[in-house]
Design goal:
2 strands, 3 helical TM bundles of succinate and fumarate reductases
């Protein structure tokens, strides 16, 4: 029989030890819970994108289809669900903007820009963009 190239190789490797992890491990610390909730709110972001695409598709079908779509959106159960989606979107946005100083390190004149300045710049951009959208939707 031929000697293998790697003499420490064994064909049947023993199982590695893996500690059992409970399904709700993320409830042990507030930071973990916030992380998981933030990741779950990405579903609200995806739903909002799909809703926007559905609205564009309905607009392409004509005023009758759009009227029925708006009537469906006005249903109390749908409005309640969309209120929950809005809260999820706001939570996602705030946690995303709070992460900006950790992900973006800026230097000016050889010194690091303070985290608060980066966060305030992002929040300011959010407010300006929201104001511009509201201004456009309100008919100027």
């Amino acid at each position: 029989m031929k000697t293998p190239a790697n003499p420490t190789y064994t064909r049947y490797h023993p199982r590695w030890y893996r500690r059992r992890m409970p399904i709700f491990w993320w409830l042990r610390k507030a930071a973990y819970t916030g992380f998981i909730l933030r990741e779950l709110t990405s579903l609200a972001v995806g739903y909002s994108a799909l809703l926007l695409m559905a609205k564009v598709a309905v607009l392409a079908r004509g005023p009758g289809a759009y009227g029925a779509f708006v009537q469906w959106l006005a249903h109390p159960a749908v409005a309640t669900f969309h209120t929950l989606v809005l809260m999820g979107l706001l939570f996602h946005t705030v946690t995303w903007l709070n992460l900006a100083p950790k992900a973006l390190v800026l230097r000016a004149r050889g010194r690091r820009v303070p985290d608060m300045a980066i966060a305030l710049a992002h929040y300011g951009a959010w407010i300006v963009a929201s104001g511009a959208i509201l201004w456009l939707l309100a008919g100027r």
